[in-house]
Amino acid sequence: MKPGTVENLLTPAPGRTVPNGAGAINWLVPDQSIEQKLAILAQSARYDVSCVSSGVREPSLPRPVLGHPARSGICHSWTADGRCVSLLKVLLSNACVYDCAYCANRKSANVPRASFRVEELVALTMGFYRRNYIEGLFLSSAIWSTPDRTMEAMVHVAEALRFRHGFGGYIHLKIIPGASLEWIVRAGRVADRLSVNIELPSERSLGLLCPQKSREAILRPMLRVRDVLAEYGEDRKKGFRHVPRFAPAGQSTQMVVGATPEGDDSILRLSDALYRKAGLRRVFYSAYVPVGDTRRIPVLSPPERLREHRLYQADWLLRFYGFSVEEITPVAGGRLDVRFDPKTAWALSHPEFFPVDVNRDDRERLLRVPGLGARNARRVLQARRFGSIDAAALRKMGVVWGRARYFLRCADYAPPSWNSEGLAELLAEPDRKPEQLELPLFDDA
Amino acid sequence: MTRETPVVRYDSSFAGWCAACARLLDEGAPEPWFWSQATGKGEGMLFDAMDIVAAGMDEALLDRFFVLLRPVGGIALLSDLFYLFLSEAADRETLMFRMVRISLEQGRRGRLWHSHPDARRAGMLIDSTRREAHRARGLLRFSELGDGTLYARHAPKHDVTHLVVGHFRRRMPGERWVIHDEARGYGMAWDGSNLLQVNQFPADVNSLLSDAERRFRACWQTFFRELAVPERHNPRLQRHFLPERFRKYLPELAGDRLD
Fold first, then answer.
1. Which of A96, A156, A160, A231 sits at a 20 to 30 Å CA gap from A141?
2. Is the separation of the CB atoms in A74 and A53 below 8 Å?
3. pLDDT digits (tens, 9 = 90+) for A232-256
4. Contact at 8 Å (CB) between A264 and A335?
């Protein structure tokens, strides 16, 4: 493709309009200012959950003009909804030919439309980065033409940043379902992370709400990215010196929760499979927020933020605490008990496992104690080499004593006897207001 | 308090403290009172007599200190001590001395003794300093001046400016920038090839801003506003992550707003 033609993809003929379900909307307004476009395209991107900038160990370029990724990722601000801002998260265009029922940018939605030109996005990314507003760019797009043409335009933005302007900061590119493998591989060469949204927990729901997207179109690029990552990893192990850089921060996905009737067990089983079989770094969950006409949504309830919060907690148990899906959600089609965090819920139904002796038991057993996380388990293991640990030391180390005290034993302390029903009443979290809930999870450092 | 307790005066630098510590350890002295020359702060400041005087320029003492530390913690312990020093806690020198003692007694694992009160307090201060530096890396905001220099100011809880300059040097190797610590009255500047400490700053930075600065700030404020999901409005969480001391420097929260 000749340089500059990507601009042509985004440049409308004067006065050109695109018909959609809400009437003919002039979606590429020639005289839109960059600030107007930014307002529209940031708003369109705000339902994408991921804003992570971690996981990159090597510089993106040997000698960048500007930009260097931070391995642990950095949050640069927090918006009024309490979510971290790490990247310039925008769509390249919000003009879509698809009509997914849950999506704010669907073809039939009556929203203002806009598209960035390549150089506009480059200027914003470099300008924001210089001022330390962001770690880099998170670029997604509505599908205004074919998946390939959309993906191609996104790749051109990333390539312009990397190769024309020497930008060494973080780049996260969304893969457009249905895009050809050639463009996906090219995206991986310039991006630090790739992601393709799995959207909904089951094929049936996908068919119902996104009839133009197929499970195959979503899974195929995901598996292709996994294969390329594995292939390059093998080459590195063999000692090949010039293995190309390919999405060093891996890939992630996102699914909408609460728009369809799947239980938490289905959701977690899917996540578990994605971690194990597709090698994903993260699965993000997004409580469905009704936007516009919601007649096609089969399950319409208020945004289930508490459920989303519990799913994130369960996700962490799967990844870092050695729990299985069956342990977390034993009932088929069931939901997580929102009164407790999933670890406490498991502990209440397994009294035979406790008490855990903090001075003797191994890490796996320590990690099962509610109120004692991975960091404190490590501290306990380090500290007990110097002598036995008492209750005061545990509290000062940061163990959540109010919860942990029923499940552990230490040098000077033995837990009271308890039965599951009585303790459940004691430990049930009081009704929490939505603003008290949030995910400390947008940074997977 | 008995006069057997030595009183140590040092030149207020980290290297000065290391040199003083080396002398104390060589002489097998008990835990001292430290007196910091520049700030006048220290637990032994009421005493006229100084038993030990040390400065960071004493390379022989510094070498001695590093040799002592190498087998019992090496760079990791030295890094812990530096973070403790930058925490500016009132008892930092004593705590640092106790950490060295613990490490000499227990070896490399001494710094991991989380149930020991001194090791735990040291760990908390180190974490706090590290966290503040991490926050500064994200929450510093540079403004472009008319001559292209990028200028940022902050007032961190701990003296973390030294900890963040390397990060910005890697990010913006070809730019000229200044980070001004308003609380401590000094700054660090990068001119594209050298890192310098600076002590003088313009009184009215807003009058020196470039034309592009206004446009970028407006774009950033727009982006920040539009990115929030109204249905998930959560100001309490936002306040939790954005401490008050940083807010006045953030253009997106109306600090540094250009009228």
1. A231
2. yes
3. 989 989 888 888 889 999 999 999 8
4. yes
**Which domains does chain A show, CATH number per domain?**
5-253 (3.20.20), 342-430 (no CATH)
pLDDT-derived band of residue A11, with 50, 70 and 90 as boundaries? very low
Number of A:B CB contacts under 8 A? Answer: 167
Q: Which residues from B are below 8 Å from A35, CB to CB?
A: 215, 218-219, 222
Chain B nearest CA to A421, separation (Å) = 32
**Closest partner residue to B219 among A65, A124, A385, by Cβ?**
A124
Indicate the number of domains in chain B: 2
Do the chains contact at A131 and B219, CB–CB below 8 Å?
no
Question: Which chain A residues have a beta carbon less than 8 Å from that of B172?
Answer: 66, 130
Contact A82 B171 (CB under 8 A): no
pLDDT digits (tens, 9 = 90+) for A323-370: 999 999 877 778 899 899 999 999 999 999 999 999 999 999 999 999
- Do residue B19 and residue B122 come from a single domain? yes
The answer to whether residue B64 is domain-embedded is yes
Residues 6+ apart with CB under 8 A from A286: A47, A49, A254, A255, A256, A257, A308
pTM of the entire structure?
0.88
Asked if residues A348 and A377 have their Cβ atoms less than 8 Å apart, the reply is: no
**Structural domain includes residue B31:** yes
pLDDT above 70 for B40: no
Place of tokens 């599951």: A420
Are B43 and B84 in a shared domain?
Answer: yes
Residue A108 Cα, gap to closest chain B Cα (Å): 21
Give the H/E segment covering residue A171: strand A170-174
Q: Is residue B96 part of a domain?
A: yes
Answer yes or no: do B64 and B95 share one domain. yes
In this complex, do A66 and B140 lie within 8 Å of one another by their Cβ atoms? Answer: no
